[in-house]
Design a protein that fits this description.
Layout (H helix, E strand, L loop, with lengths): L17 E2 L4 E4 L8 E11 L6 E13 L5 E12 L9 E10 L1 E11 L9 E4 L2 E6 L8 E3 L3 E3 L4 E9 H4 E4 L2 E4 L3 E5 L3 E8 L1 H7 L9 E6 L17 E4 L1 E3 L4 E10 L1 E8 L14 E8 L4 E3 L3
Parallel strand pairs: 3-12, 9-14, 16-23
Antiparallel strand pairs: 1-2, 2-5, 3-6, 4-5, 4-7, 4-8, 7-10, 7-11, 8-9, 12-15, 13-14, 16-20, 17-18, 17-21, 19-20, 21-22
Length: about 300
């Protein structure tokens, strides 16, 4: 099964660094405003099929105020994170309670070590074999998210980036590439949807439930007719892998870090090749309205 798509172009912004206190270093200056707030940033994952692990080595985070120069937080040592471990509501913290001037910010950039140089700093592991992950960006590497956020005076801005591996890892000319498919959410405004998938449905829909028990696709909006991942609307906003809970002997899923609103969820065990328009069989398509901080429930 292939869940990889062709690589799209990406614009990267250089970083300038000076030292600061805390876990790393920072540079640049935000626009003058009435006070400071704190900034926390974590990363989570919407998983990709067929991979044993997807490890990305992060070296820092850069943010751009609406006015003023970009500000960079560089880690004292690189952070190697297996993104496949950040599922079902799990997340890994990149920046914790860093002080920023209150005001509006235009974008976030994740600095990573990911280039084709024979060093397994960022890699994907498939069937026990590791392959380098590469961002074809020359000497500057990174993943830029063009989503704004706000720091309020004396407030704590706590955000999570959903790193959608189904869209971010591409296979091009025999090499694995990393391109950005990132979604920024405010942790104060998100909820999650969890549920069970009937074992009889899985046995019918899946060729071998022991190796693959399907995925729940999440579409933004109510009444959406579900479709595969093919670059054309409707595209899934996120997805959640169905896994077997040995303690309760049931198949479960959790779609987390979803902003308040209406969603359409649907289950499939068919293979989704992101490079072509597949005809997938979806089951149990249903709408869910999610409130901020709430946990919705939907069984299939």
């Amino acid at each position: 099964m292939s869940a990889f798509k062709r690589m799209l172009p990406m614009v990267l912004i250089p970083m300038t660094l000076i030292s600061c206190s805390g876990g790393g270093s920072s540079s640049g200056s935000a626009s003058t405003s009435s006070g400071n707030g704190t900034f926390t940033l974590s990363i989570t994952d919407a998983p990709v099929d067929n991979a044993d692990s997807v490890v990305v080595e992060f070296t820092g985070v850069e943010v751009k105020p609406a006015e003023g120069e970009a500000i960079s937080f560089t880690f004292d040592s690189p952070m190697s994170i297996d993104l496949l471990a950040q599922q079902n509501g799990n997340s890994a913290e990149l920046v914790s309670d860093e002080t920023l001037s209150a005001g509006s910010y235009n974008w976030i950039r994740l600095a990573v070590n990911a280039e084709e140089d024979g060093v397994m700093d960022s890699y994907i592991e498939i069937s026990g074999t590791q392959f380098e992950l590469d961002i074809p960006s020359g000497s500057q590497t990174g993943l830029k998210l063009n989503s704004g956020f706000t720091i309020t005076a004396s407030g704590n801005a706590d955000y999570t980036i959903d790193f959608d591996l189904r869209k971010s890892v591409v296979l091009a000319s025999g090499d694995y590439k990393l391109r950005p498919s990132l979604r920024l959410v405010d942790n104060a405004e998100v909820g999650s949807i969890s549920g069970e998938v009937d074992a009889t449905l899985i046995a019918t829909a899946c060729a071998d439930a022991n190796t693959y028990s399907g995925v729940v696709y999440v579409f933004s909006g109510a009444g959406i007719t579900p479709d595969d991942l093919d670059g054309a609307d409707p595209e899934p906003l996120s997805s959640a892998t169905v896994s077997f809970d040995e303690d309760d002997a049931v198949y479960t899923y959790t779609a987390a870090f979803l902003e308040a609103g209406d969603y359409t969820l649907s289950y499939t065990c068919d293979e989704d090749d992101g490079e072509v328009d597949d005809t997938l069989i979806f089951n149990g398509t249903s709408d869910v309205t999610l409130a901020a901080g709430a946990t919705g429930t939907l069984d299939f």
